[in-house]
Amino acid sequence: MAEQQQFYLLLSNLMNPDNTVRKQSEETYDTIPGQTKISFLLQAIRDASAAEEVKQMAAVLLRRLLSSSFEEVYPSLAIDVQTAIRTELLAGIQSEGSSNIRKKVCDIAAELSRNLIDDDGNNQWPEILNPVWLSCPLKVLFSHCSLYLQVISALLQTMEDQSNPRVQAHAAAALINFTEDCPKTLLIPYLDSLVQHLHVIMVAKLQELIQKGTKLVLEQVVTSIASVADTAEEKFVPYYDLFMPSLKHIVENAVQKELRLLRGKTIECISLIGLAVGKEKFMPDASAVMQLLLKTQTDFNDLEDDDPQISYMISAWARMCKILGKEFQQYLPVVMGPLMKTASIKPEVALLDTQDMENMSEDDGWEFVNLGDQQSFGIKTAGLEEKATACQMLVCYAKELKEGFVEYTEQVVKLMVPLLKFYFHDDILHEISSMPLLLECARVRGPEYLTQMWHFMCDALIKSIGTEPDSDVLSEIMHSFAKCIELMGDGCLNNEHFEELGGIMKGKLEEHFKNQEVRQAKRQDEDYDEQVEETLQDEDDNDVYILTKVSDILHSIFSSYREKCPHRPWADRQWGLCIFDDIIEHCSPSSFKYAEYFLRPMMQALCDTSPEVRQAAAYGVGVMAQFGGESYRPAFTEAVPLLVGVIQSPDSRAKENANATENCISAVAKVMKYRPECVSVNEILPHWLSWLPLNEDKEEAVHTFNYLCDLIESNNPIVLGPDNTNLPKIFIIIADGVVNESIKGEDGCSKRLANVIRQVQVSGGLWTQCVSALNETQQKAIQDLLNTA
């Protein structure tokens, strides 16, 4: 016992954040013999008193041992020890209370079973084929092809054991799990034998239901048939006539309350078989099946809220819609009422103190979130699955019937839009994909009706893009919004929409790059390892996926507005350019794939009548030069003359034009610095020097001063002039930059400029010449710079 406790301490120390403790523990663990390790690890997993994290670590280590060192460890164990290991694992699968630990034990068993298949494909662990174990999530086990036939044979043999109905039910449940995860190509070779056995069992169990009233196994067999058909798809056509008469008989006659689950599962089975075999094969029975469903639907309002038939019916109707296509429209008046009622379920929520929460339990259908301060938020989850299914079915009808669904679009939109704020069930939020589908349905009623519907959606969608915390749901909303823009076209967004959306899109970009910096910092941390990298990679993939949705929205906007962009209000044009400025700056060369949407408008915008638009365009040219990469090179030949034209226009220094002009000056500097091969630098430099300093845009001023330092430090003859004759002018530029606070003592640029001044200071005559060119304010500015930088 003491040794086992020491081992638990060792497992805990393997997770210790202190590197020294963890390293010592790893070294100690490596010295333990293989058989002893297995014994201790198994005992830790099965010990109910062990801490959860200890059990998890033990499970991870045991699976790793069987994966990486199986040949070295397992064959050398005594036969009774090997048997004990297998027995312990199977017992753990059955009795483990924690679903997390149970899943890990299943993974261990799957790893062991994989290693216990010999070169001829023979399974050396036949007990693993027991249906009780197969109903657990041993999916890794099923990945080995040679086990399929053994698994199916074992399950069918057990299902035919009439003496033990519960074991039969277990076997049927295991077959459902098996066929749901089984690839179609691997199931087909065994399909005929599997289907024939299922038919024999179904007939026997149907007789048993009639004679004795027992239904448990028949429920599972019906679901097994549905699962096989769903996987086999068109390959199930030859067996259709074998099952359909019996299934229709069950739906028609299983009307007693205690048989409602069987009836619901049979309705599901019929609809799945119909979907699998296709319309042509199913149509002779379609009318009779629809009448059975209609009869059930007519009685829908009389069904109790917890009647299991409800969810099966809702899903079955949607499958029938997929099968029948436009012919299904005639049934909508019967279907839609109950469906909308289910989709409109409002969950019961409550704010509870600790005492109230203790009086309620999750068994009563409540789930709780601790809010601190002795309070919890509770939600009654009963009905939410049905609500999610109903919302999914509404999407299905809109998608399949299109304009045939138009009568119901308004009420569905009024139901769906408020769900953007529904935080209680992610599957419900995922159905936001219906928005563009509903618009497509509504289009048949004309542009005015369509526009009214869009206005009802638009604000809510934009707000959700800015506030939705779940990345999966957010991506759905963004994708839906982009599709809506494409469908609605030019004019669907107003200035307020552009402004709000622009802020949100920029925020998404900034969040991504901030997250990238955080991830890079974590990679430098002392605790960084492969597991951390895996997590960071997942986070990065998630971020990048959201960025693709940002691109989808931008793509849809610029595609829809491309023809009319020059005629949009200046705020719209500026918004679009600013978004693409950010994309060029942050996405670097990969931004070029969107160039077809913005490059031509950006060139045109350099001469726009609005200074705000000119400024955004000039900034874009600058970041293009700095971050854009090789693909943008041809653009600079066109852009630089346009920039020079703006700078040299008579009113370029007027107050309203100053920021735009200074961004043009900075953009010219960035082209000369980062893409000198694209322009004649020597011709432009004298002009550029005469345009300095920048006094309004402080951020761009830093870029120009840094470039000026580059040129001076490299003794550029054009900038310095013959015999340094340009230095007095440079001193004036620097002094004015200090006076206008474009240069601040604490930044790196100011230190570089101060060093230039100090170098001149040591040559007396030149220093006197430069200082004498300055007025009193400028002289003080130079002295302040020397004192602070």
TrEMBL record:
Protein name from the UniProt record: Importin-5-like
UniProt entry tagged with the keyword Transferase: no
Localisation per UniProt entry: Cytoplasm; Nucleus
Residue ranges annotated for the IPO4/5-like TPR repeats domain, each copy included: 99-130
Keywords: Cytoplasm, Nucleus, Protein transport, Repeat, Transport
Gene transcribed to yield this protein: LOC107730386
A biological process term (GO) from this entry: protein import into nucleus
Residue ranges constituting the Importin subunit beta-1/Transportin-1-like TPR repeats domain according to the UniProt record: 201-353
Natural source organism: Sinocyclocheilus rhinocerous
One Pfam match: Importin_rep_5
GO terms under cellular component: cytoplasm
